[in-house]
Structures are given as C-alpha cells and as structure tokens.
C-alpha cells in the first residue's frame, strides 16, 4: 500500500480553489495599480472625474462608463475598471477630446453662442489608455506567475483553501 495517497488526493482536489484565489489576488492588485495610475494622470479640475475612477468585481456602478472589462472565466471572475458618474459624465470627452462644433440655437451652451466658429473643441487628455498600455503586460505576467505558483503541490493547503 502506498502511503500519503489520501493527502495527495486532498492537495490535488484543492488546486482549482488555490488557482482561483491566486488569480483573484493578482487581478485585484493589477486593478489597484491601474486605477492608481489613472488617478495620477487624469486632469484634476474639480476632482469629480478622478474620484469616479475605480474597479469592481462584476458590473460597473450605474452612471459610470466601462473603460475595461476582463473576460469572465468559467468561475465568473471578471473585473471592471470604470470612470465617470452622474456628476462626471464627461470621462470619454476628456480621454478622447471633442471636435470643434457649432452650438445649437435655443438651448446650446451660452458661453459659445457668440463665438464665430462655435465651440472650439477640446484636446484629448488621455488618462486610461496610457495607464492600460503601460501596465497591461505587468498585470498579465503577475496573474500568470501567481496561478503557476498555485498549481505547484508544495506544502499542505492553507486554511482558506480548506473551505
């Protein structure tokens, strides 16, 4: 009779949970880093847009614009990075800028009604995509490293894995 088979079977059974916990931690850390960089890069006029940037598991809060969303896996792990709110509805306009345009009569922005060319538009002040491009590989590599490490059968399962 081979000794230790029951212990080995227990550890093998814990691998999926161990991988999920490792992936969750790596994904959360990556989302925290991405949000922190976005908040550093976003223009700080009133602070409303900066304060609206965040991440959550699952769907974004009502009124926000989804900027990035991971694909859910079979266990439903999905992080959503978002910006904007009812107060900071202009997140996409800041990221991508706006084109010059004429103001509609009778309800347009009074500030530009007298201007010869209408609204001059605004230059893009990107905060999301530079952050995303800068951190994407680092975040992906961390998730791969953590899940690979979780697959190794070294040591007994932790208390969190025993649940």
Account of the 3D structure:
The chain is mainly α and 163 residues long. The chain has 5 helices and 3 strands, in the order H-H-H-E-E-E-H-H. The chain has helices at residues 5-13, 15-41, 48-52, 91-96, 128-151, and strands spanning 54-57, 65-69, 79-83. It has a 3-stranded antiparallel β-sheet with strand order 1-3-2. Helix 2 (15-41) packs antiparallel against helix 5. The longest helix is centred in the N-terminal third of the chain and has 27 residues, at 15-41. The mean pLDDT is 79.
Q: Would you kindly provide a brief summary of this structure?
A:
With 163 residues, the chain is mainly alpha-helical. 44% of the residues lie in helices and 9% in strands.
| Ends apart, CA distance between termini | 29 Å
Helix/sheet category: mainly alpha
Strand content: 5-15%
* Low-confidence spans: none
Shape designation: elongated
Number of helices: 5
Give the beta-strand count. Answer: 3
| Radius of gyration using CA atoms only | 23 Å
Largest sheet: 3 strands, antiparallel
> How do the strands of the widest beta sheet line up side by side?
1-3-2
Roughly what percent helix?
40-55%
How much is the average pLDDT?
79
Write down the secondary-structure element order. HHHEEEHH
Key descriptive features of the protein:
mainly alpha, three-stranded antiparallel beta sheet, elongated, single chain
């Amino acid at each position: 009779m081979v000794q230790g088979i029951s212990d080995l079977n227990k550890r093998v059974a814990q691998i999926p949970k161990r991988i999920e916990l490792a992936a969750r931690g790596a994904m959360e850390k990556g989302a925290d880093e991405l949000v922190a960089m976005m908040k550093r890069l976003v223009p700080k006029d009133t602070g409303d847009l900066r304060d609206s940037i965040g991440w959550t598991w699952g769907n974004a809060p009502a009124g926000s614009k989804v900027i990035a969303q991971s694909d859910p896996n079979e266990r439903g792990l999905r992080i959503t990075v978002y910006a904007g709110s009812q107060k900071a509805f202009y997140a996409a306009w800041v990221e991508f800028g706006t084109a010059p345009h004429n103001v509609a009569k009778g309800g347009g922005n009074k500030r530009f009604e007298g201007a010869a060319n209408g609204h001059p538009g605004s230059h893009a002040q990107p905060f999301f995509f530079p952050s995303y491009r800068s951190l994407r590989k680092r975040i992906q590599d961390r998730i791969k490293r953590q899940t690979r490490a979780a697959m190794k059968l070294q040591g007994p399962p932790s208390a969190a894995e025993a649940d």
